[in-house]
Amino acid sequence: MAVDQAKLMEFLGKAVGDMGAAMTGPLILVGDKLGLYKAMAGAGAMTSAELAAKTHTDERYVREWLCAQAASGYVSYEPATGGYTLPDEQALVLANEAGPAFLPGAFEIIASVFKDEPTITEAFRTGKGVGWHEHDCNLFRGTERFFRPGYNQNLVDSWLPALDGVVEKLTAGGRVADVGCGHGASTIILAQAFPKSTFFGFDYHGPSIQIARAAAAAAGVGDRVTFDVASSKNFPGSDYDLVAFFDCLHDMGDPVGASAHVLQSLKADGTWMIVEPFAGNRVEDNLNPVGRVFYSASTMICTPASKSQEVGLALGAQAGEARLREVVLEGGFTRFRRATETPFNLILEARR
Fold it and tell me: Residue 209: pLDDT band by 50, 70, 90 thresholds?
């Protein structure tokens, strides 16, 4: 076997980079859970002793953590003073949970797939599915924390205005179903923005619904938000002005059946908003950093979830707009368009 040494070394360098990234993942969770990033945000240079004292943690552990963070480029190090600084840009990503770029939730998802790897490996052998409910609980919390910043940034200000007439209906007072709502972040954001409307969140995962109910009460919208356990093909209610699916249609075993059920649940002039991971229509369109994350998540989470359900169509997280259009139209809708997009999401609109 002829080996190109330059290519070998290039690939080994890439693999070592990935090793460092993988080892950094748990350290991000440590920093998030212990409040290390939040303590460093806006504080300027800090020594390991100062950070440990501020966060009531052990200095020796904190010192090693800071060295790893500096080697990863997550914090900067000043040799003359021994101080470590979390730059404002990194703080926005690592410490500002209300900001648009907060990412530690993604690393909770990653932690869950490492724990679930033996189960997924066995599914490769058998072809059986692995349901959402069968994953480590880090997945449920991490998903909510990962998606919530994007919803805060985009849902009310840009995604809904891109849909025909929806903002006006919800401002006046409409009925909204949020299907696959998880912990209810998207439902609660909508309820806070449109106090005259009524909202119904549905998810088949009972523990998530319990958390969503508590979150709605804490947010002060419990009087206008109802959360119930139901699937995408049997959620109750009719005459909805808006039905929303946030990053979940591709996870469903029978997305065509879900499409048909949404159609009969909407008012005649109602709208189905489908938010899906950003993807092109061809594999080669998605061979990039975002596609790398989404294909990997799809292998470990989305495809197994779909295969665990009836039909098991397994669209995958990188299905692309053309394939999603086929599913929606097959369910009976006649109008389908891309309303808007972000680097991470397609926002699609379907109507009768």
Answer: very high
3-state secondary structure 218-242: HHCCCCCEEEEECCCCCCCCCCEEE
pTM, 2 dp: 0.94
Residue 171 CB-half CA count within 13 A: 7
> How far, in whole angstroms, is CA 217 from its chain's centroid?
23
Q: Considering just the CA atoms, what is the radius of gyration of the chain in Å?
A: 22
Residue 8: in which H helix or E strand, if any? helix 5-33
- Per-residue tokens: 137: 């609980």
pLDDT at 2 over 90: no
112-123 residue pLDDT tens: 999 999 999 999
| Range 276-289 average pLDDT | 97
**Are the beta carbons of 95 and 37 closer than 8 angstroms?**
yes
Nearest to 44 by CA among 33, 30, 34, 54: 54
pLDDT for residue 22: 96
Q: How far is CA 256 from CA 37, 204, 315, 324, in A?
A: 44, 17, 11, 10
Q: How many residues does the chain have?
A: 352
Residue range 16-43, pLDDT digits in tens = 999 999 999 999 999 999 999 999 999 9
Render 262-297 in DSSP notation, one character per residue: HHHHEEEEEEEEEEEE---SSGGGG-SHHHHHHHHH
For residue 226, the model assigns a pLDDT of 98
Side-chain half-sphere exposure of 2, counting CA atoms within 13 A: 0
Give the DSSP H/E element, type plus range, for residue 187.
helix 185-193
DSSP per residue, 37-75: HHHHTT---B-HHHHHHHHT--HHHHHHHHHHHHHHTSS
Q: What is the pLDDT of residue 1?
A: 78
C-beta atoms surrounding 143 within 10 Å: 25
What CA–CA distance (Å, rounded) separates 123 from 55? 42
| 220-247 tens-digit pLDDT | 999 999 999 999 999 999 999 999 999 9
Kindly state the DSSP code that residue 134 receives in the 8-state scheme.
Answer: G
Q: Enumerate domains of the chain plus CATH numbers.
A: 5-94 (1.10.10.10), 104-351 (3.40.50.150)
